[in-house]
Amino acid sequence: MAKMWAGRTEGLLDKDADDFNSSVSFDKRMYKEDIAGSKAHAAMLAACGIISGEDAKKITEGLNGILKDIESGALLIENAEDVHMFIEEQLTARIGEAGKKLHTARSRNDQVALDLRLYLRNRCGEISALIKALLTVIKDKAEEYKTAIMPGYTHLQRAQPVTFAHHLLAYAEMFKRDAGRIKDAVSRMNYSPLGCCALAGTTYNIDRQMTAAALGFSGVTANSIDGVSDRDFCVELLAAFSLIMTHLSRFSEEIILWTSWEFKFAELSDAFTTGSSIMPQKKNSDMAELVRGKAGRVYGDLMGTLTMLKGLPLAYNKDMQEDKEAVFDGAETVIKCLKVFAPMAASLRANTENMRAAAGKGFINATDLADYLTKKGIPFRTAYKIVGGIVAKCIKENKTLEDLSLEEYRAESTAFDKDLYESIDLLNCVERRISEGGAGSASVNKQLAALGEFIADEKNFY
C-alpha cells in the first residue's frame, strides 16, 4: 500500500526497507500523547478559523473513539509506519474528509517532538513518585536503626564508627538530588514544539500558545528549527536516569555485601531473593544484583543517544528515530528498578549485633584516641604517630584498644589517663561527631527531620 507521503515518490518501499524504516513497534506506546496533541491541534485550528468547528468536532470525536478502541483492545496498533500515521489513517477511515484536515499546519517533525515531550513528562511523574516512595522507606529504616552502631568504611576497610541510620541517610541525600534533577530537566523540556512544523514554521496564522496551554506546557519553543531538532531533553533525562541507576546500583552493592555470610549485617525477605538450582543452602540477593546490572543498560542508552546526536546537521534527520528506543528503555528500566527496590529495601532487617561486633574490631576508634591526645595538648601528627604505634602493638598481641591497660597506654604517653576509655567507647565515638551533617544522634535527628520535610513538600517533586 502506498504511504500517505506518496507524491514526489511512489511511496512503495522494499519490504525490508519498509520494516527498517518503521518505528510503530516502539513508538506505539505514545498513542495517548499523540491523540491528546491532535485534539489540541484541531481545537486550535478551529479557533483560528483554519478549519470549521464542525470538522474539529468530528476530528475530536473520531480521536476519542480511536483511543477507546485502543485501550479496550478492539484496535491494535500495527501495520503502519509509525503511531502518528496509524492514528491519522484510522481517523480518516472513520470520519472521511475531515480527517484529512487534521495535519494542516503540522508536520510529523513537530508532532513527534511534541509526543515525545508529553510521554517523557508523564514517565517523569511516575519516576518522581517512586523516588518519593523510596525516600519514605529510607526514612523509616533510619528511624528504626537510629542507635545501631556499625563500622563506616573507606577503601572497603573499617574506618570509623557510625550508625546504620547515618549510613542510610547518605542514600537519602542522593535520591533527593535525583528528584531535583528530574524536576529541573522537566522544567527545561516543558515547552511545546507544536507549530514548528517541518522546520520553518507555517504560513497559517496559528496560535501556538493556545495548544501549549491546553497541553500543560510552560510556553512554546522559541526557534522552529530548534523545536524539531532539539533532543537535549532526552540526553538530560537519560543523564538523570543514569545517576538514579548509579545510586540504586551502589545501594544494591551494599545490600549484596551486607546480606553475604562474610558480613551478615542484614537479611532480605525471601520475597526478594532466589535460591540455587544445585546448592540448597543458597539465598541470593538476585533483585539487588539485577538492579546493579541494569545500571549499565541505562548508561548505554545515554551514550547511544549522545553518539547519535553528535554529528547531526540541523534540522530533523531520520537518525533521530533512534532517540525513542533509548529514552523509552532508560525511563522504563528506572521505573522497574525503583518499583522493586523500595519494597526490597523495606524488607531489609539489620543484624545489629553483628554490626556492633564488627565495629568493635578493626580499630575504628583509633582516630578518637588520637583526638583524645590532641585535646591534651599534643600536636595531631605526634598523636597520630603514638596511636599508630599502639595499634601496631595491639595487632601483634591480638588485642583491641579497649584491652590495653592504663599502664600500657602510659608507657606510650604520659598524657593518657583513665578517661581515655570513655573516649574510645564506640557509642561515645559516634555521639561526639557533633559537626553539622556528622554521625552523632543530634545530627542524625536533624537529617531525619529535614528528610521528612523534603518528602512532605510536593514542590520537591515533579
Describe it.
With about 450 residues, the protein is mainly alpha-helical. It is built from 20 helices and six strands. The strands form three sheets. It has a two-stranded antiparallel sheet with strand order 1-2. The longest helix is centred in the first third of the chain and has 37 residues. The chain is elongated.
Low-confidence stretches: none
**What structural category characterises the helix and strand content?**
mainly alpha
Strand order of the largest sheet: 1-2
Q: Mean pLDDT, as a whole number? A: 94
Helix share bin: 55-70%
First-residue to last-residue Cα separation = 44 Å
**Structure annotation, total helices:** 20
User: How many strand segments?
Assistant: 6
Identify the overall geometry: elongated
Strand content range = under 5%
SSE order, as H and E? HHHHHHHEEHEHEHHEHHEHHHHHHH
Give a quick account of the main beta sheet: strands, pairing sense, barrel closure: 2 strands, antiparallel
Evaluate the radius of gyration.
30 Å
Short account of what is shown:
By secondary structure, the chain is mainly α. 62% of the residues lie in helices and 5% in strands.
Provide the fold topology.
Elements: H1 15-21, H2 24-27, H3 31-47, H4 53-72, H5 83-95, H6 97-100, H7 108-144, E1 149-154, E2 157-163, H8 164-189, E3 191-192, H9 208-214, E4 219-220, H10 224-229, H11 232-258, E5 266-267, H12 286-309, H13 322-346, E6 349-350, H14 352-359, H15 366-375, H16 380-397, H17 406-412, H18 420-423, H19 426-431, H20 441-456
Parallel strand pairs: 3-4
Antiparallel strand pairs: 1-2, 5-6
